[in-house]
Amino acid sequence: MLSFVVLAVVAVHRGRATAAEPSGAVPARSFEFTYQVHVPANADSGGPTHLWIPLPQADGYQDIRGLRVDSAASHVWGHDPEYGNAFAAFTPTMQQSVAGFDVVLRFTAVRREHRVALDAAALQNGAAPAPRDPDLQRYLEPDKLVPLNGPIAELAREHAAGDTTPIQKARHIYDYVLATMRYDKSGEGWGRGDAVWACTSKRGNCTDFHSLFIGMMRSSGIPARFEIGFPLPENKTEGDISGYHCWAEFYLAGLGWVPVDASEAWKNPAKRDFFFGGHDANRVFFTYGRDIRLSPDQKGEPLNYFIYPYGEVNGQPVKNLQTHFSFREVSSQLPAVTR
Question: Which class would CATH give 118-286?
Answer without folding.
Answer: alpha beta
